[in-house]
Amino acid sequence: MAHPRDLRNLPGALVDVRAELTRADHKAATLLALFSAVSVGIVAAFTVRRSGLFALWNGAEWLAWLGIGCMTVGLVHLLVCVRPSGVARLGVGGYFAHYAQYRGRPDDLVAHLSDPDGTDLERCAQLIELSLLATRKYRLIARAVDLLGCGFAMVAAATLLDAVR
């Protein structure tokens, strides 16, 4: 005997996933603003120095360039994270852009939203898509933080090595 589907938790799960997406977007935007300013400051400090980045001891220069490369890749990860995705996927109902296809046809939208059979299935598809998007954003943020931390450590080590040498 088949058990009836119990989807009472589905709206709450959608709200939770959307809240996680919002939280991920805020984290990525904050980190992007903070680390962009710090990275620009580091690069400016190297260019303002009397001797500049190219005048560092050879090993320290390579280490500094690797650090700047890591910081750049980390910032690119954050940019990818805050870039709106899903606009190109009009067929997926988890995004606001899905409903743009009903422009000039409000009756079709009402019929689509009032369909009792498709609503639960569409919400489950939304939950899956939004969960995948939130997971992807958090992975990008984690990788960006790792790269930025590694880059800052390399630049600091290069500065110390050059000072000691």
TrEMBL record:
The chain crosses the membrane at residues 28-47, 62-82, 140-161. Residues 14-160 form the Pycsar effector protein domain. It is found in: Cell membrane. It holds the Pfam family PycTM. The keyword Nuclease does not apply. It comes from Streptomyces hirsutus. This is DUF5706 domain-containing protein. Keywords: Antiviral defense, Cell membrane, Membrane, Nucleotide-binding, Transmembrane, Transmembrane helix. Its main location: membrane. It comes from the Bacteria.
